[in-house]
Amino acid sequence: MEGQHKYVLDESEMPTHWYNIVADMPVPPPPPLHPGTREPVGPDDLAPLFPPELIAQEVTGERYVEIPGQVLDVYKQWRPSPLFRARRLEERLGTPARIYYKYEGVSPAGSHKTNTAVPQVYYNAQHGVTRLTTETGAGQWGTALAYACALFGLDCEVWQVGTSFDTKPQRRTLIEVFGAQVHRSPSRLTESGRAFPEDHPGTLGLAISEAVEVAAQDEATKYSLGSVLNHVLLHQTIIGEEALRQLAKAGEDRVDLVVGCAGGGSNFAGLAFPFLREKLTGAQDPTILAVEPTSCPSLTRGEYRYDFGDTAGLTPLLKMYTLGHGFVPSKIHAGGLRYHGMAPLVSHAVDQGWIQATALHQRECFEAAVEFGRVEGVVPAPESSHALAQVRREALACRESGEEKVIVAGLSGHGLLELGAYADFLADHLEDDPLSEDALVAALAEVPVL
Amino acid sequence: MEGQHKYVLDESEMPTHWYNIVADMPVPPPPPLHPGTREPVGPDDLAPLFPPELIAQEVTGERYVEIPGQVLDVYKQWRPSPLFRARRLEERLGTPARIYYKYEGVSPAGSHKTNTAVPQVYYNAQHGVTRLTTETGAGQWGTALAYACALFGLDCEVWQVGTSFDTKPQRRTLIEVFGAQVHRSPSRLTESGRAFPEDHPGTLGLAISEAVEVAAQDEATKYSLGSVLNHVLLHQTIIGEEALRQLAKAGEDRVDLVVGCAGGGSNFAGLAFPFLREKLTGAQDPTILAVEPTSCPSLTRGEYRYDFGDTAGLTPLLKMYTLGHGFVPSKIHAGGLRYHGMAPLVSHAVDQGWIQATALHQRECFEAAVEFGRVEGVVPAPESSHALAQVRREALACRESGEEKVIVAGLSGHGLLELGAYADFLADHLEDDPLSEDALVAALAEVPVL
Q1: Which residues of B are less than 8 Å from A1 in CB distance?
Q2: pLDDT tens for each residue of A27-52
Q3: Cβ of A375 and B178 within 8 Å?
Q4: Yes or no, beta carbons of A377 and B110 under 8 Å apart
Q5: pTM value?
Q6: Spatial CA neighbour of B97 closest among B400, B430, B342
Q7: Which end of chain B has less Cβ packing within 10 Å, N or C?
Q8: Exposed, middle or buried, A111 (CB in 10 Å: 0-12/13-18/19+)?
Q9: Inter-chain contact B170–A377, Cβ cutoff 8 Å?
């Protein structure tokens, strides 16, 4: 039996800056627009929701943004996260490809989400904010924000998407262990929520509307978003920056394929953008591939248009691949991928042809995840399983072609709080996830025409 | 906010040998006896259950046993495990004590159990064994053995204690994801199981009987035990060996207190025995303290006598602190601590006065665990929470006395599959755990008189 290999970094080798892809984009991304005036939004428009540093990071053209010392101190609890060479998986698949995966499940919340939760809470705490509101889909983001709020002494209120709240009581408990308060969305606490029946399964877009609505009402309360926005993606780039250093240690100065799952886009961008820098600057030429679920395929079936980030239309209009802000995806287990849109920076990169996208059904993803778990000893989050299923396809293609491709996958989190989904899969009760074509047409018809 | 500090080791600094406390015991431990003849058991008596290397390790007087290269390769997936300085906890408790914890929850199964599962499966695989049977209480051990069997290509069958099987479906699923088969104990598959009603809550001792009975019937099937025996404790000593090296890096050449939870004794011994070596050889003089639950208090309320390791009386007679092999503890959440006996080597050390013991109720343990989780970002296993509650007591005593004690605690695993227990605690539904005095008297009356 061939052993895995783990590539670690000393804390002294840890990146000290986040990387901003905007600085290297030869074509700049389109700006967000004010939902009322439809003019580009300025810093003042965002001030009710975010502290000044995060607004500055949202619009900066700086190539590198320094990570504050206190944030680095917290990061060091679990970072640098390990990069593994998946030798046992390679052996099992009989592939000449060399497969690496960057594992973010070692964080306190079990996923990459803490990479942005910690700096977001840190900057809010600096400005006297005492409460943060947010949404959570899979529960990963709510957990991460609750953890970070506990560290810095802020109150935290989380609107958990109804279907996630109903089927994942453990996730709610974990958020509560970290001291936050959890509401099922749609709740009766907001106008946005009350517009839907109480037993509605909810969507990420709707939970965002509820959290934004509450934050806007109170000076000492701000809102925190777990994906989509530029500053969130910025914070996640520490993943790819570490991975590049670890690959160098592994003797790989060239990568053929970078694969990540994409819901709102932050996990994907965190791994991919440092590699995209290498591509745009000509240092390397990897294929960079986003994998989404067939039931919520914004990049592969959506339209690249200005749309709202939330269901109720409270956020700025973002130029992005969207299924329409009213689109309700089916109840797949990868709750973190059930978002109608895609981060504007990822959308722009796809539109420019720098990044590719594909979509997979959930059964194939769970099959790959179980196989991966048995050889690598890690049970992947259902979201991450989308990346692994694509890796499996690529590795088997290399077996046919004989190509020794170097593949880097993002393993965004563990699935220890999603074992109910695995039980369904093992009992052959897991259904594939149809995309409702009619619902898609109807939702796209509601996207504002500018 | 003061940051934590994580002390890591390079793989090159990792221990290459397990440590055998027997070599340094000035008084040797009493031998196990054959259940029929009541003479000391020889290697031949154990051959139906274990491969030769494990039998040799069970009786060796060698001080250090080399870790096989293939086992080290697998260990490196998660080892060396981190040692944290719990600065945020110290700050919260306002204590001058310096608190360190050694965190084993980073392993693929989420606990220390993989440290022995991997070598046990490795040695069995070397001898052509194709199937292993075992018991599991909390589910940690079953998960670890399933993981290791998947790596080395062995079949694995797990008898899960009834109350654990009923209340922790996620744990069962995780074991199944790793490819093993799970039976509720008492099962209808064994004579030992059929002696009890099908809805009996079960005990570790009974699950052991079932797994031993099946293994003894088949040449290619052997049995694997997750605690209690000398070779199991031996494998766990890598925990304490690493901790000593990490403490040296932290500038601590002297420890005042070593604390671990104790069920069967392997987690506790794994951390404690290398420190006990320092104590017995005069290099340091720490207090070494085992913490057990009030509802299953073998060390603090049991008798130091020869008793069976299992309920049905199939195992050798072990000289140990025991509550009686028929004792059925109440259904506390720390399922891994629900064992009627205690490892003979730990029992001998307590009898000789080298190690102390204390017992705590579960509500105090969960209170300490939630506090710990909020400041340190790790949700402890209910078992580990016993160590943390004792640390809390000690740290608060230091606040009163002003003593700057150096405390090292074992955090044997995470509690992400035990969130139901945390939900009960947060909702104030968690009851304390009475010890039935009548049941104890009755069970002790059944211990064989030699």
Answers
A1: 70, 151-152
A2: 999 999 998 899 999 889 999 899 99
A3: no
A4: no
A5: 0.95
A6: B400
A7: C
A8: buried
A9: no
